[in-house]
Amino acid sequence: MVKKSNICREYRKKYPDFPTLKLARIVYADNKLTFKDVEECRTALRYIEGKKGVKERKYVNKSEFHMSQNRPKNPYNLPESYEEERKPYILPVHCDNILLISDLHIPYHNIPAVTIALDYGKAHKVNTIFINGDLIDMHQVSRFEHDVKKRSIKQEFDATKEFLKQLRKAFPKASIYWLKGNHCVRWEKFLHAKVREIWDDDYFYLEERLQLNEVKVTILDDKVLVKAGKLSITHGHHIFKGVFTPVNPSRGAFLRAKQSLIVGHLHRPSHHPETDLDGNIISCWSTGCLCELRADYSPLVGNTMHGFAHIEIEKNGDYTVKNYSIINGKLC
Question: Which sign, positive or negative, has the C-alpha torsion 327, 330, 331, 332?
Answer without folding.
Answer: negative
